[in-house]
Amino acid sequence: MTMTNAVMSAMGGQMHHHTSVFNAQTPQAQSIANLFYIDLAIAAVIFLTVTALVIAAVIRFRARPGDGEPYQDPGNPKLETLWTVVPALILLFLLVLTARAMFIVNPPVGTRKPDVIVVAHQWWWEYRYPSSGVVTANELHMPAGTNWLLGIQSADVIHDFWVPDLGAKMDAIPGHPNVLWITPQKTGTYLGTCAEYCGAEHAMMGIRVIVQPPEEFAQWEKAQLHAPAPPVAAAAVRGAGLFEEKTCMNCHNIAGTKARALVGPDLTHLADRDTIGSNLIANNLTNLAQWIADPQSLKPGCNMPNLRLSGAEAEDIAVYLESLK
Ligand code: CUA
Hints:
Blueprint lengths: L2 H9 L15 H34 L16 H29 L10 E6 L2 E6 L4 E4 L1 E5 L4 E7 L4 E4 L7 E3 L5 E5 L5 E7 L11 E7 L1 H11 L9 H12 L29 E2 L4 E2 L2 H9 L1 H4 L12 H11 L4
The structure holds dinuclear copper ion.
């Protein structure tokens, strides 16, 4: 199976979400969209006016047989002033609108601490909720109707966090924390992507934001703090053993177990997630087993190695991980 076929088949049946800068779902995204519409309207008027004048001039003043040297205009101070001042005023108007949009999108932070910290990694997203201590990966949960401050940071790569429906783009730069305000108004799942070329995985840095009613979000956050129940089913028990033995635990954290590493995504509640591989494929047993057996077949260039597991071993580990709720 080629890589594309593998991903296509793994994606089979996954729900489609449309994402678009025209589908603004926050005041921040709306102000960016409004600015775009105004810019577009003004640019369209200028384009049509200039085009019409050029066409009119070409027809009206075209050279005819027998014409001599055309009239040489030595200059017209009034006209020249006019076509300097008018564009300057248009640009000034757009500058004011842009500054206003920038203020709506990124108002001063003051002493406010981020509600969630987005940490960019090669090649995944980490989400840390400082007030509760919850740490999760690749799927960002947020409460609807709340003005949230996102801290945008990076461990080892420059990504650009962008969820078009929800707001502006913001670079994640190592050693230079940024912030981004998002006020989601409607519950739902919003998709985004890395918006700046960062390397081999650039096209596979999907972002999935789940905006929940505040009570549901609070429940989710509370549930995240509990370590998952130890595995019961035989395959899951075998999988948990393999997870330690086959060195998975050298990269991943699972609360309540010996796996404490923070190199790869936190897997404590992996079974709660809709997708794996940064919104790459649906999170189900088949896909997860294939991912564990050969991550490169689904996400070439990702940093998870092929551990040469047998099919049965990969399956047992997948069963274990899918029990982590
Ligand atoms: Cu990260 Cu492009």
